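Appendix B.2, paired examples.
Example (i):
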Amino acid sequence: MRMRDRHARALLAGTTAAVLGLAGCDAQGGGDAGASGTRARQAKPSPTSLWDSSPDSVAAVGDSITRGFDACGVLADCPEVSWATGSSAEVNSLAVRLLGAAKAATHSWNHAETGARMADLPAQMVRAAAEKPQLVAVMAGANDACRQSTAAMTPVADFRAQFEEALGTLRRALPKAQVYVASVPNLKRLWSQGRTNALGKQVWKLGLCPSMLGDADALDSAATLRRATVQKRVEAYNTVLREVCAKDARCRFDGGAVYDFRFGTDQLSHWDWFHPSKDGQARLAEMAYRKVTAKSS
């Protein structure tokens, strides 16, 4: 979000967002079926005959989650631990799993930006396409819901148009590139998890995802309605990602895996209790690798 606004966006996952859609669980984490994930699994899968489960290059676009924000130090990007293209052995990123560490170092590129929203994705796709990757990994949308107020959230129709523009931008440059799309994290679950941590709540007061995390202890009707409104918007965004991706034979949506996953305290940054830790990034990499290498979508 530009200067002061940009700093606020830097605290928002985009993300884990990145990340992440993530609370109400123990430190070990684990899977959980959620509303948007269930709908995604019931969707008719895209054709898979054109899908290559072993691409030889990877580019990443998205927000702070894909930049590894707050995973290594406070208020700083750490792309080496990115779930998509990082070099860290602790994370074992999607690129490393697909290409091996040596090849990933020269055949993977991270064009995500901390604070990015879906409106920023078309420009990121232009930069990614210039690398001519065989696979583009996408994680965006958390910052569209993480705004100063629910009224400031990106309208669903705009979100759809922006995502369609981003895919169209890639397709015009690289008609045969494959696309992996991660779902938007469960922000309400993150609130439920983090509100039990005194330090986390203090960091949230700096302006971290105020639409969901503001007044963390408030349980009155207005606060409850605000959080429910954000949650419904996140679910609507995931429906958009699923539907738009389903129209493209070379696109795979994660089926709600990131939204559904219960990130525990070990998977969250202990600086902001919002973005993924190194362990959280590793979980994202696992989910992406399973989807990319699956024989069918």
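Example (ii):
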Amino acid sequence: MLPWKRVLRPLAALLLTAAVATVPAATAHAADAAPSSGWNNYSCKPSAAHPHPVVLVHGTFGNSVDNWLALAPYLESRGYCVYSLDYGQLPGVPLFYGLGPIDKSAEQLSAFVDKVLAATGAVKADLVGHSQGGMMPRYYLRFLGGAAKVNALVGLAPDNHGTDLDGLANLLPYFPGAADLLKATTPGLADQITGSDFLTKLNAGGDTVPGVHYTVVATKYDEVATPWRTQYLSGSDVHNVLLQDLCSLDLSEHVAIGLFDRIAFHEVANALDPAHATATTCASALS
């Protein structure tokens, strides 16, 4: 008998992500008309206080608008130039991105960062990603020259060492051909399964590269990037933090931590400006 509760939890999270992504199609292009002082405004010039433009990298099934309707204005109101991109598109699949091969998605990120740096005149950017968006940039940093162009990478519930989808992925070997079908139809999903060829290459030789500051914010209620402790990175310039250590009352799971959790957002702000960091607590939800 299948463990239905374990099966349904990750599926419910994916459905919630999909529901958030299905705002009217016009919003898929709304980023170009985002608040004039920052979000995808290529005339924005970084200030001395915040010299690095912030590039937001959405998660699987997300897109450049819906994933960031809360965090983008949160950072913009604090004086950052903020940008977001769509990546990992599959032919004929609108709105739901992050499904293509992750190494190719990293190439899209590389081109986007170059575009942002050219427009802003900045030397380096900061990257903030949710789920796959917190893990995929590590390929860019390690293999595509991104380390010379990135100051910091902040991951919200990133599946840095893959996911077993709360045990669901462990069932794949019992269904002949299922893994091959997943890889053929949605390679971005297959690349994120624990033990994939992509993740083996990504994590060989260590989790980090010199010169980049890494922050991981995880939640113990994560039902997608599981086990949640595998989100953490090892390295000399890494700050791993559990959301519930900041506020024990925070019940955010995988989707919520990236979409609207202001306690997590406060920790993002601290990571982007560590010189002026303040303690992240339950009260940060009101900041």
